[in-house]
Amino acid sequence: MTPPVSWKPQSSSGNFFQMNSTVIKIIRADVLPRFAEFLSRTGLPQLQMEAAWVLTNIAASDYTLLVAESGAVPRLVELLGSPNANVRHQAIWCLGNIAADLPSCRDILFDHGVVTPLLSQFREDMKIPVLRTAMWALSNLCFGKLPAEVQVKPILEIVSQLIHSADEKILADACWTVYYLCGGVDDAIQDALDAGVCPQLVNLLMHASSSVLLPVIMALARISAGDDAQVQVLIENGILNCLAQLLGRNYPKNIKKQACLIVSNIATGSKDQIQAVIDASIISPLIVILKTSETDIKKEAAWALSNAASGASSEQIQYLVSRGCLEPLCNVLTYQDPDLVYTCLEGLENILQAGEAGKKGEEESETNPYAQFILESGGLDKLEDLQDVNSERIYGLVMKLLQSYWEEEVSESDDPNIPGSNDSADSVETTSEDAAQPPAPASVADEAE
C-alpha cells in the first residue's frame, strides 16, 4: 500500500527551508505560534501566503505534529474561504502536508472540520495545479480510518468526476482516494458503487501509466472483497476480460498480484461467478503463473485457483482439470501458509468428489481418474507429508482424503514387508510440463472452450 506523500515546495528565497537544521532553528526560536498568528492577518494576503508557505515547508519535515499543534490548523481551514486564490492554494498545500503525516495530525484536521471547506474548493473553474493540490490533499486526508462523523458520499461524488481527468496526477490521487475509503470506512464499497466509479475504474485497467494502474487495480481489489452482489457489478462491467489481459502480459509484479487477488475474490462467490472467471479464459494464465512466476505471485494465483476449485460444479471442475490445475494445486500443499493449504485441500476434495461421482456407472474402470493422477504426479506424497502438520483442521481433512481415496496405497506404503512400498510415487516419471492429464469421467459432458 502506498502511503500519502508530503510535498516539499521551495520557498520564495530558494532553498532556505530545505535544510533540516534551519527548520530546527525556527522551532527552537519558538516562532511557530507567531507564523500561525500571521495566518489571521486578513488585510495582508501576501503575509498570510508567506506564513502558510513557511508552515507548509515545516509540515513536510519531521516536525509536522508541531505545526499541527501550533494553532495553525483552524486558521488554515479558515483560509480555505479566503478571497485570494493564492492564499487558498497555499492553505490547501499546508493542510495536505499535515494530513500526510501521523493519524494524530489527521485527527486534528478532522477536529477542526476540514472536510467540508476542502470539498468546497473543487470547482469547475479550478486551474489544474490547484486541482492537483486539492485532490492530493483530499487523498491524504482519506488515508486510514475516517471518523464516523465524516460523510463519505460527498467525497465520492467529487472523486467520481475526477477519475475521468486527463491529468495523470489528479487521476492517480482520485483512485488512491477510492482505495483508502473502501478500506477505512464501513459501507464505503456500496457508496463507491452508488457513486458510479466502477465502469471508469474498469476502463482504467487498460491505462498506459503504472502510476495510475496501481491505485486503480488496488481500488478494484478492495471492491472485489465485497459481497456477491457488489462483485457482480465488477463482472458486469467487464473486469474479468481486462484481468485476463493483465495476467497474460508482462506487467509489473505488484499489478499481477492484485489481478490475482481480484480473481481470487470473485472465485469465492457463486458458481455463476466462477463460470464468469472460466469464460474469461483466466484459468490458463493462472496456471502459467503458478508454474513460472515468483513465489509471492504464485501464492496469489494459488488462492485464486484453490477458491475456484473449492466452489466449482462438476462441469467446471472438468474444465479446471483439463487446463492442468491438478499438479500445481498439489504443489501448493508445500506452501507455508496454513489457510492457503486448507483452502487448497478443500479444492482437491471437491475435485476428488467430482471424480468419484463421475466414475459411477463406468463398466471398464472403477478408478477415480483425478485420484489416480494425483497419485502419479506425486501429490499423494505431499498429502502424506501433511500428516505431520501442526494444524488439527488440516490434519483432519488430509486424513479424510487419504482414507477416502488412497486407503490401499497408504496401507501398502506403511507395510515394511512390501519391497519398495515407500517409492510408489517415484515409479511414475512425470514432469510439470509433460504429465498427462487425467481422462474426464464419462458422466460429465464435455465443455466447449
UniProtKB/TrEMBL annotation:
- Recorded superkingdom: Eukaryota
InterPro entries associated with the record: ARM-like, ARM-type_fold, Arm_3, Armadillo, Importin_alpha
List, alphabetically, the Pfam families matched.
Arm, Arm_3
The record's region (Disordered) falls at 408-449
GO biological process: one example: protein transport
Q: Where are the ARM repeats?
A: 71-113
Q: Which UniProt keyword terms apply here?
A: Protein transport, Repeat, Transport
Q: Where is the composition biased (Polar residues)?
A: 419-434
Describe the task this protein carries out: Binds specifically and directly to substrates containing either a simple or bipartite NLS motif. Promotes docking of import substrates to the nuclear envelope.
Give the multimer and partner information.
Answer: Forms a complex with importin subunit beta-1.
What family, per the record?
A: Belongs to the importin alpha family.
Name of this chain's protein: Importin subunit alpha
